[in-house]
UniProtKB/TrEMBL annotation:
Name of the protein in its database record: Flavo protein
Gene Ontology MF term list: FMN binding; oxidoreductase activity
Cellular-component GO terms for this entry: cytosol
Domain NADPH-dependent FMN reductase-like: 12-162
PANTHER family assigned: CHROMATE REDUCTASE, NAD(P)H-DEPENDENT FMN REDUCTASE LOT6
Pfam families hit by this protein: FMN_red (PF03358)
Gene3D superfamilies to which the protein is assigned, alphabetical: 3.40.50.360
Amino acid sequence: MSATTTTATSKRIGVILGSTRKGGNALGLAKWVSTFLQKNIPDEIEIVVVDPVTPPQPLGPLLHPQMPSLVKELSDYPTEPIRDWSRFVSSCGAIVVITPQFNWGYPGELKNALDHLYYEWHGKPAMMVTYGSRGGAKCAEQLRQVMGKGLKIKLVGRDVLVSLPHDYIAGEERVKGDEEFLKAFEESLKEASDELYELMGGEANAPA
Ligand SMILES: Cc1cc2nc3c(=O)[nH]c(=O)nc-3n(C[C@H](O)[C@H](O)[C@H](O)COP(=O)(O)O)c2cc1C
């Protein structure tokens, strides 16, 4: 097996955050999603939220001497953080991307994290949770193209689009993960995470 091959049997779900901003809504939304996933899927699945500002992330400028799609072995990567990122993504049976919409797209840091690898993403089951004043639909649309078509990630059919109330964007409020308004998005989170777990080869827990 090449060092960059997906470990399809892995019982780990990696949660990748699009925003690196301090004091934003990303960590609260990650808590909401990971708490929900932990209830919705069997205990044996480990959920790992990647801190986007602690090594191996952020990865910085692309330093690969050759396109990531030409990299076949871990040793072909130019730095240890990229190798660590490759090992981590390969160790995940599925990925959840949680990202805000920035200027009708998604944050550059997220694109950078995706672009550093190639074969590690192929066929990896994944779902997206986007957020913004209207759910981040434009960002979800762009990500679907990059992740689904460009990187051949196996995306679930439904994206979870979380509309944040005005005070969470322009005011002082920040998501902690247990807000009432999040309940409106739990049905789509359930549908997406059920499908994600099916793509991992399992069957989600029945509702409590
Ligand atoms: C650079 C920037 C651009 C933004 N552009 C949009 C946008 O196009 N649409 C939208 O709904 N919200 C937009 N927002 C609001 C963010 O979606 C909102 O602030 C969100 O909480 C940011 O995620 P974070 O708090 O995890 O960093 C933007 C915020 C920033 C910082």
